[in-house]
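Deviations from the work plan: none for this task. Representative record:
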Amino acid sequence: MNIKEYIELLFTDYTLRTITLGTAILGAVTGMLGSFAVLRKQSLLGDAISHAALPGIAIAFLLTGTKDSNILLIGALVSGLIGTFWIRGIVKKTHLKSDTALGLILSLFFGFGMLLLTFIQKQPNANQAGLDKYLFGQAATLVESDVWLMALVSGICLLVLLFFWKEFKILLFDADYTKTLGFNTKFIDVLITSFIVLAIVLGLQTVGVVLMSAMLLAPAAAARQWTNKLSTMVFLAALFGAFSGVFGTAISATQNNLSTGPVIVIIAGVFVLFSFVFSPSRGLLFKQIRFIKNRRDLQLHKTLTFMFHIAEDHDNISHPHAIKILNNFHGYTRGTLQKLEKKNFVKLDGNMWSLTEEGYKTASNLYNQQNKTNE
Amino acid sequence: MSNAQLEIQLIASIVAIACAIPGTFLVLRKMAMISDAISHSILPGIVIGFFITQDLNSPLLILLAALTGIITVVLVEYIQKTGLVKEDTAIGLVFPTLFSAGVILIAKNANDVHLDVDAVLLGELAFAPFDRMVISGADVGPKSLWIIGSILIITIALLFTFFKELKVSTFDVGLAASLGFSPAVIHYGLMTVSSITTVGAFDAVGAILVVALMIAPPATAYLLTTNLKKMLLYSVGFGVFSAISGYWLAHGLDASISGSITTMLGIIFLLVYLFAPNKGVIAVLYREKQQRTEVLLLTFLLHLKNHTDERERHVNHLNEHINWQKVRSKTVLDLALKNNMIKFNKNIVSLTEKGDAFTSQAIDYIITNEDAQIEDMKDDFFLFRG
């Protein structure tokens, strides 16, 4: 199947369209809210909450006996919120650190959820099959009403985000200042955390408990590399998330035996890897290039300074000297000499070099500047 | 109790002990989430190992999977070192990606692999006794018992050999380095032991229970003691107790054993979290309330000392002046009376000699900026606490 056929299929095939739309919206909303999670250093909260949602799903099923995904999601939301606030309680009231609290809530809630799920499976009720899709997620089970729900929740998230943008931003970067300005920091904090929980719960059906944390983090971590501005980062993260959703669905739809969740996560991982390496300002590649360039510049400057000191001893600064005397100097290469000539700092004449007026001036200034920065 | 039941409980208890020992150090080193990351990211290692060996219990597979665990740690540390993202983000990025790779590997080869993700993540302890170890025709017990038993013995041997080194490097990395123990060697040693324990235990109890057994017992123990040896002992105790009680819970409910063990761990943690002396939530809340009342009492006594004028010391005036609610004023006045700090004379409050001495000393400490001393002073003066 080539790309054109796939795009045609995308518009005609109900299932494919629903899943693509669903994963795209999910990626966008998790990317958007994930930016806040990453910047608030709550990256692993996503992992803990998605696991903590499991008992909620099981209890919602036990209480109502229906498999209506909306009711199950409300159960997941409640239990996710309980988990989140318990984590806060542990960190605040005891001397256990946040990593221990996260790991505790994650594993204990998940284990309890498993107990309930296996308990449900043994019940004489034929309706219980399919609850374990929340473990690993099955994008294929998405129907149009699920996508509508996702779109609705995303819309609300976006509205709240725009409405409280200033508050979220200021709380993110300077919590103490926010408090002195008279904002209710507790309320803003609870609000943003609740929306993060909501986004996670929304994705459980699609990518499942285990992989949800990557959906939250990866687009945001990738977006962080391209910008230092919050609004751009949130926008980019939403974009990366949506693209991971679309591409992931496309790849898993065209291959046999590939579940959508893991493929989406891998695609998001590729985005992260690409951003880590190729981002212009923070990326590893350009950092390395800058590092090498800086080292070269430094060597160039060293050579120039050395020449300057030789030339200083002569009345005529353009007095020619033999290239040989530079030979043992650290940082001297034929290349640096040619570069210096290109910049019109030195003149080369056979085996001899001489400093130009401009080179002399630059070299003496270089010296001053170095002195200035040293002081 | 049948033989199989006994074996299941034995395996669960041994897993609990084997997990509690490295878990204690992970919790103390603030690396608890690393165990979660390892437990997920060993999946591709297990899958690849399974392709090679075709046997879930082969030592080669355990080594390969443990290697993946160590690779995870190295990757997390590398990403963190680049400074592009924080440590927790690095953990959150690495393990789901590796886990996804594992899931895709399984899915792509679903036809010829007898391995599914549920089994790796959740495990099934109930089946553990059926996989027997047979040496030259003689049945010597369940395979997983042997695997996890040997891991436990190695762990205990390492713990006793390197206890001092582990202790120093956990609490003071700088001191450990200056004494000549390489913190890096101990760090990676601990990571290796954690990885191997996770892999050895996963097929009996599942990855999530491994995480629960590694974090929950030490965290619970940490709320009860600050002594490393006691913490290790308590962790082992909590682990074994929940393993056995969890088994009987599962037996009663006819549900997953690993789920029940985790639930027991959760119940124990909840109880200790609420009721632990000194560090439990109720104790903390009570102490906070006590301190609040005592600070109020101090404020009140200082006020009395500052004002000799009778009008300022009238009960009604105090109510208006310090602006306390009725109940609060009553609590503070009662406490002051009980401790013989004040006396009443026709609704005029005045300090007793003891109250006066207490207040003067408190002022001294406040002026010299030694507020912390006030806590000790309270022990000398107070018959009743707030």
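Chain B has 16 helices and four strands.
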